[in-house]
Amino acid sequence: MTADRLVVGTSGNISVRSGDLVAVTPSGVDYDDLQVADIPVVNLDGDVVEGDLKPTSELPMHLTAYREHDAGAVVHTHSLNATALSLLRDEVPAVHYQLADFGGPVRVAEYATFGTPELAQSMSKALTDRTGCILRNHGTVTIADSLPKAYNRARQLEWLCELWLTAKRIGDPSLLSDEEMARCAELFSGYGQQSR
Hints:
about 200 residues; alpha+beta; 8-stranded mixed beta sheet; 8 strands
């Protein structure tokens, strides 16, 4: 995530679910220093069942994504362009058909203090019928059935926000219609290698 400029320092976090257990990045550990043994494993109530390090402060957000949105993996970033867009908009406008992979325009969740149940609920509301959202004045959350797919969505979301911000500097970006977005969403449902 650092090399892809999705986080700086120890910001952001990821998790992956296996049954009723979740492996999640620990709080405040530099990604360059992170070892497999450093990854805490928690149950869906947030109790640590394996590992010595404290889980990320955003654990309530991760657990909410698992319990309320049936996620298999969660990626939370502090990416620049998405966070900048959150200061200006209530959603990522339909600037590209790639938004169909998120279920439509990506919503911006209302601001709440990091690590709080209020932030988890704000995120959950913005994630309704979506696979990603932006947290106002904070960062992004993407979900998927696998960690590689959730991570790819985080990268795509940052690119979509950069696309809108770049075009907006010059003028008013042309947007895709709701009908076209619905058509693309249908096409995305069968996109790629389904047997993998």
